[in-house]
Design a protein that fits this description.
- By secondary structure, this protein is an alpha+beta fold.
- The protein has two domains: about 170 residues, no CATH class; about 100 residues, Rieske [2Fe-2S] iron-sulphur domain (Rieske Iron-sulfur Protein).
- It contains seven helices and ten strands.
- The protein has a six-stranded antiparallel β-sheet with strand order 1-10-9-4-3-2, with no helix packed on it.
- Strand 2 and strand 3 form a beta hairpin.
- Helix 2 crosses helix 6, helix 4 runs antiparallel to helix 7 and helix 5 runs antiparallel to helix 6.
- The longest helix has 29 residues.
- The protein is elongated and about 80 Å long.
Length: about 290
């Protein structure tokens, strides 16, 4: 049902995602660092989710203060309500910016992008309502500000529901390896002959039913799970540069030695494996992270 409601907005959604990409692309390396910050790569998961908690929690607190003031006659709560709403409003601006940064890497013409786009547009409307409420309060019109807050609160609650929908149904901004690590190999298991593994070339092999990417440097082999933690892209098709591998889908970059995130949008480190060469065979043990 939500997917059907959101699909008419597909053109708008694709346009917004393309525009965000066009904003960041000319910024080069500084833009990449800004994206890393806004994606939450440094945090280990989405920064957007943290800010949304502040928005919803702050708006709830303001609503409670307004109800106590307007319906229970408790005095002198106007200043506290305005300060808390100001905090929620600033967080809402941050949530919009981080959300748009995450959003640009969704798959074009997909139900995930459709619903996420609807989620974002609804929350922008809620942010506008919070802005009006805050301005009214700064002008000492707290009663009218309450009604604008109430409208914003209802709207942001709908937006939060849609946000939960895309996370729990589509795994949006969730570690794609969280539930697909494969069976842990307690013993070293041979996967390929060293002679068949090209030098400094990302290569896909199978460890049981799990796809693993290998990179050979002489007699040293590094091993990461083939599936990118951000959106499931194939790391063996990515670009190897120094001791890093960059996913071809959304350009998340990981260190091949331990799977740590160098650049986002990935927030979760890549699952890694211990590799060794034994009697001409590359053997793996793990996974580890």
């Amino acid at each position: 049902m939500l997917e059907r409601m959101a699909r008419p907005l597909r053109g708008v959604s694709n346009g917004i995602a393309s525009a965000m990409g066009a904003v960041y692309r000319p910024l080069g390396a500084p833009g990449r660092l800004l994206q890393d910050f806004l994606n939450g790569s440094w945090l280990g998961h989405s920064l957007h989710a943290v800010l949304v908690d502040v928005v919803v929690g702050g708006a709830t607190a303001v609503l409670l203060l307004d109800v106590l003031r307007a319906f229970f006659g408790i005095e002198s709560l106007e200043t506290a309500a305005a300060w808390v709403l100001g905090m929620a409003w600033l967080s809402a601006l941050g949530a919009v910016l981080t959300g748009l940064t995450d959003y640009k890497d969704t798959a074009p013409n997909s139900a995930e992008r459709d619903v996420t786009g609807l989620h974002g547009l609804i929350n922008i409307v809620a942010t506008v309502a919070f802005t009006v409420s805050l301005l009214l309060r700064l002008g000492a019109n707290h009663d009218t500000g309450f009604w604008w807050l109430l409208v914003g609160y209802v709207v942001v609650s709908v937006g939060a529901y849609l946000g939960g929908h895309v996370v729990f149904k589509y795994g949006y901004m969730v570690n794609h390896n969280a539930f697909s690590r494969g069976k842990r190999a307690k013993e070293f298991t041979p996967v390929v002959a060293l002679a068949a593994l090209p030098e400094a070339t990302p290569t896909k092999v199978e460890l049981g039913t799990t796809a693993v990417m290998l990179v050979r440097r002489g007699d040293v082999v590094h091993a990461l799970k083939e599936t990118c933690s951000h959106a499931g892209g194939p790391l063996s098709k990515g670009e190897l540069k120094g001791d890093t591998i960059t996913c071809p889908w959304h350009f998340s970059t990981f260190r091949i030695t331990d799977g740590s995130v160098v650049h986002g949008p990935a927030g979760s480190r890549q699952v890694s494996y211990r590799a060794r060469v034994n009697e001409g065979q590359v053997e793996l043990q793990g996974p580890y992270d």
